[in-house]
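ok trying this again, last paste got cut off
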Amino acid sequence: MRVVRALSGTVAAGLVVLAAVVVVAAVLGVRRGFPGPGASSVAWHIGMAVLALGAQIFSDRRRGIPAFFGSLVVFVAAGYLLVTQWWN
């Protein structure tokens, strides 16, 4: 179970970094007058990063099946974000 939690922690951290990159790209786009990610994309990235971070904290504080399902929420959030915002 530790391996699953460690992997989901890495994915959750990656989502936080990805959200930060999208926010910076949006701010730079507005300031410099070039198209960047829209408000919807920024909101989805921030929302999924917050969800994944919360699920990872839940997973780290539990053991057994609840920890597994917390990790599963992280993986589903990452997959949903990548499919809907990057591969559509």
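PB: full thing came through this time. Residues 2-86 form one domain.
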